[in-house]
Amino acid sequence: MKTDIEIAQAAEKEPILKIAQKLGLNEDDIEYYGKYKAKLAPSALAGRTKEGKLILVTAITPTPAGEGKTTTTIGLADGLSRLGKKTVVALREPSLGPVFGIKGGAAGGGYAQVVPMEDINLHFTGDFHAVGAANNLLAAMLDNHIFQGNELGIDPARVTWKRCVDMNDRQLRYVEDGLGGPKSGVPRKDGFDITVASEVMAILCLATSMEDLKARLARIIVGYTYAGRPVTAGDLKAAGAMAALLKDAMKPNLVQTLEGTPALVHGGPFANIAHGCNSVVATRAALKLGDYVVTEAGFGADLGAEKFLDIKCRFAGLKPSAVVIVATVRALKMHGGLDKTQLSCEDLGALERGLPNLLRHVSNIKNVYMLPAVVAINRFPADTDAEIALVIERCKALGVNVRLSTVWAEGGKGGEALAEEVVRLAETENNFTYAYDPVLPIKEKIGLVVRKIYGGRGVIYTPEAEEQIAALEKLGFGNTPVCMAKTQYSFSDDATKLGAPTDFDVTVRAVRVSAGAGFVVALTGNIMTMPGLPKRPAAEKIDVDENGNITGLF
């Protein structure tokens, strides 16, 4: 059996200009990054007023058994293309943290991938490096301001802006810098976030134009004065230079699937510590260029989809036409308490116990957000007909159809049945609504997400979080959406609570504002903005030969 990277490397890719031409673009509308990658030039959307149908792909709560959300997204897009629909995929860019950490590659799998797979998984077009550079320029200007006399009166003990690096490096979570004497800066406690958790990444993915980008960058709060006043990037006169570093990173990246469907891969905030969606500019571009746009949101629907709908769609004025919820029988049996080593055996009892996880996600999409949905079962050879029938029966009780997906093995052909159901759903009007009103107090919004989306009982706030919420509301940040930073492995803030737990409280230990992005972040449980590598990092298996051929990315 070929690995993902072997399949990708054996594929015959079309020149990127041919992919652009499928969207009605010409050579002046793209900026080449080699033979198979390009960025959309500003002229690409000139005069285009149509709006395609937006399809969101989300999933059940992740397990080690895997769900295949990105693979399904790509296979569905290829399936729609096979039905004659003008389709565009809109995806996030992979972070180097997971690539070298646990997951390995993140560009789909099997015969449902975006290519060039190695480039997309590694440096791609340099967007993440630009985000890191802009983030760290602001950090350098902040510390330099303090060193050079501190005209703004910034309290070094109340600096909130961190440096970042796109790597899982727990050693950098907490550092002390400015050491080495008077000429080496002002000593203070500091730390690093992973680049995908940087507010600059969130801003890049929510900004609608260069003007909007600069305005958002200027609103970033980097710390507080001795008198308690917020200090912004605008106060430090850093926004213009940061925007200059992000000039090219703002342009969506154009690549292709293995079957030649155009794909816009752009931006990449994590869903467990940020809002987990690709950029607004890429999604809007895709909607003007295609009749169907298939996009995804990170992790399970309680994280990525909730933020896609309550944050991204709210800010960008987007309205999804349908939602696909990806699941596997294997993963549902893990939610039912089955060990990973036992997943190949039929176990209807474990499946029955695990199904509430899927059904809660389905109910949230259908009954909270009022969106039409279909469940896509990523079928494995060991799945039995009885197990599939049980999933179909339980979903039908909620008024939702199930479609089997075999896109990993068959590409777009294995996604045609799912594509037909998506087209059917997308042709009907829906009453899309949000889970909460942003003008509500911060604690009320958090409580609504916990109760309505997670199925929890309530919220416990640490004294620090209580104090931070009061301060943020006093500063005028109470009427923004909330971005929940929570484990991806459970509806609760406890990663060990599988399935669909009830009667649990979520503990919010800290609350901070991302003023440029436009939301308040609630940190729950032990979620961290700088992950660490596992005992056996995926990086140990990645290599390159003397001809530049990369191996080990799946």
Can you tell me about this structure?
The protein is of the alpha/beta class. Helix content is 34%, strand content 20%. It is built from 18 helices and 25 strands. The strands form six sheets. Strands 1, 2, 3, 4, 5, 6, 14, 15, 16, 17, 18 and 19 form a twelve-stranded mixed sheet that branches. The protein has a four-stranded mixed sheet with strand order 20-22-23-21. It has a three-stranded antiparallel sheet with strand order 7-12-13, with helices on one face. The longest helix is centred in the first third of the chain and has 21 residues, at 127-147. The radius of gyration is 23 Å and the shape is globular. The mean pLDDT is 95.
Quick structural overview:
The chain is α/β, with parallel strands linked by helices and 554 residues long.
Any chance you could write out the topology, listing elements then pairs?
Elements: H1 4-10, H2 16-22, E1 30-32, E2 38-40, E3 53-59, H3 69-82, E4 87-91, H4 96-100, E5 108-109, E6 112-115, H5 117-121, H6 127-147, E7 154-159, E8 163-165, E9 175-177, E10 188-190, E11 192-194, H7 199-206, H8 210-218, E12 221-225, E13 230-232, H9 239-245, E14 253-257, E15 262-265, H10 280-289, E16 292-296, H11 301-316, E17 322-327, H12 329-335, H13 348-368, E18 373-378, H14 385-396, E19 401-405, H15 407-410, H16 416-426, H17 442-454, E20 458-461, H18 463-474, E21 482-485, E22 505-514, E23 519-524, E24 543-544, E25 550-551
Parallel strand pairs: 3-16, 3-17, 4-15, 4-16, 8-11, 17-18, 18-19, 20-22, 21-23
Antiparallel strand pairs: 1-2, 2-14, 5-6, 6-14, 7-12, 9-10, 12-13, 14-15, 22-23, 24-25
Helix pairs in contact: 3-16, 6-7, 6-9, 8-9, 12-13, 13-14
